[in-house]
Amino acid sequence: MTAPTLFHPSREWSDRVAVLSSGASRTYGELEAGSRLRARHLLAAATACDLEGARVGFLMEPGFEYVVTQWAIWRAGGIAVPLCPDHPDRELRYVIDDADCSALIGAGMTGRRIEDAARERGIPFHEVSDPKRGFPAAGPVPPDPAPLPWIGPERAAMILYTSGTTGRPKGVVTAHGQIEAHIRSLLDAWEWERDDRILHVLPLHHTHGIVNALCCPLYAGAAVEFAGSFEAAATWDRLASGEISVFMAVPTIYAKLLRAWEAAAGSTRRRWSRGAGALRLMVSGSAALPVRVFEHWEEITGHRLLERYGMTEIGMGLSNPYEGERRPGTVGQPLPDVGVRLVRPSTGRVLAEGVEAFAPGASGEIRIRGPMVFSEYWRRPEETTAAFVDGWFLTGDEAVLEDGYYRLLGRRSVDILKSGGYKISAVEVEELLRTHPAVRDCAVVGIPDEDWGERVAAAVILKARVAPEAGLAPGVAVSSAALSPPWGAEPDSAAVASVLDPWVRKRLARYKVPRAWRLVEDLPRNAMGKVRKPAVRALFNVRARPS
Ligand code: MLC
Ligand code: AMP
Q1: I need a surface site. Which of 93, 150, 235, 271 has the fewest CB within 10 A?
Q2: How far is CA 299 from the centre of its chain?
Q3: Ramachandran sector of residue 61 (left: φ over 0; alpha: ψ -120 to 50; beta: rest)
Q4: Best substitution site from 87, 286, 372, 505 to test ligand 1's pocket, by max atoms within 8 Å of Cβ?
């Protein structure tokens, strides 16, 4: 394989616009120069000529600085660890510690949130304000063009954190060559062109926003327009501007856009519909796209959304065709260079491979192989080994191959939820809740939601005796029934929610916060004492489905 070109734009592109953000447009030449300078500052601060895989955490809003920083870390030989501006300190510190970051970079008010974390850990915090200035505090910088290290495709490039079936999120390590294989597969399948401009509305700590919507266009020489955070009317206006050719989003965003369209005046609707209809490509992924959303979107824009399937560990695996029939409710066929199999886990029998079904109609686990599949879970060798069988990655997703198209049936684990495209571990939320002084036990489940796919819901048993500092009792409470928060005589689900919601919010990303609460005296369990999650779902008036 040749040297990765993730951060080596073609010389011919120097004057082309690479990034538009905060009302300014920046060229590939500026990106190239800014990231080289920042890389040299990083190396000077570390007194090294190659960061040799040191992890560098960075926190900033989506925009030009983000891209300059990502490229600078790569050019300096570091591993980029993007941090999420929405996360509370506890989550940020978890990632910084788990990745064992040796330097942190922050921009603006958002970035300054990790300054204390750097000081406490005795690692440098670099504040960036202007790419031309690099890090002023980093001391003397070698003259340009100083040699930057050569980065081979096998070297680790990025760690992204993803939830699993157990506890806290794991770091997924991908190498430069793997990211490049992911990009090349999508460039080929979706026909990215230099003249494309994508409207970018996704978070930049997950593969959808980072690789599909940022690295792909930059690799193709196209332009990325950052919208800031997602806002439906502003997004419609930009889609209708005539300047955007590509859009990628999670189903919740399309659902929110549809609601905004329905609420708009007739003339606005016509303008939005006409404008969006002129785009070259609109993609949905990260969660199941409801057929109703697919159909409504087609009705108002004429676009048949291209739905695809991916995962942090594998990049993208399956996609409906760019040319050819895009079938609602399916995720299409294997992407270029991706090996896809359906396997019955209990027997190891291969039920389908590629587009060939060996046991028509039978469902199995999706297993993936290919040059884009990740290297390892960061410092978790046992979990890495357990994630593969014969070189195939076990996705944990269940699917069936029907008439040559894969259709997802759901996750094999009830403990993995998806809300608004974010993966959430029920176990992580449960483990946190159990550390609250008033909580004896709990069970967290996903309940279906039209717009969000799933919402997080928690059933909670309170301790019989609660210390006053628990916040649920004004003094010494003696029994669960007698627990009385200051605002009510009897504890009920609403009272529990009012105490636990703000407590959880301080500790977990907001998309992990339960949106529905039930106070229960006991949890439904099977004969082995294991909580029956389908029965927990029923507590929220959701019809039980098999676990
Ligand atoms: C926001 N909220 C959520 C939420 N996002 N609740 C549950 N699930 C979510 N995902 C809550 C907020 O806390 C707030 O509630 C309320 O919703 C409104 O917040 P908001 O910030 O105004 O919402 P909005 O900006 O509209 O955010 C929604 C969203 C966002 C869909 C734009 O969730 C998002 O960017 N999702 C994309 C996730 C993503 O990129 N996944 C890719 C993973 S990679 P309150 O009570 O706090 O006010 C992957 C692989 C692959 O999956 O195949 O791509
Ligand atoms: P993440 O771990 O955040 O990368 O999320 C990956 C998971 O998102 C996959 O394992 C699937 O469960 C889910 N997913 C991604 N794309 C789709 C899709 N088009 N339809 C249904 N689920 C999807």
Answers
A1: 150
A2: 29
A3: beta
A4: 286
Range list of β-strands (E), 153-289: 156-162, 170-175, 197-200, 223-226, 246-249, 281-284
Q: What pLDDT is attached to residue 139?
A: 57
- pLDDT of 331 higher than 80: yes
Q: Extract the tokens encoding 79.
A: 């591993």
Ligand located closest to 232 CA: 1
d(CA 405, CA 407): 6
pLDDT of residue 312 exceeding 70: yes
Q: Which residues make Cβ contacts (< 8 Å) with residue 85, sequence separation at least 6? A: 59, 60, 61, 110
pLDDT per position as a tens digit, 124-175: 999 987 555 556 555 566 666 668 999 999 999 999 999 977 789 999 999 9
Cβ–Cβ < 8 Å for 418, 454: yes
Distance 47 CA to ligand 2 centre (A): 41
Q: How many helices (H) and strands (E) does the chain have?
A: 16, 28
CA-closest candidate to residue 339, choices 314, 370, 308:
370
CB distance 162 to 380 below 8 Å: no
Say how many C-beta atoms besides its own lie within 10 A of residue 110's C-beta: 14
Query: What does the mean pLDDT of the chain come to?
Result: 92
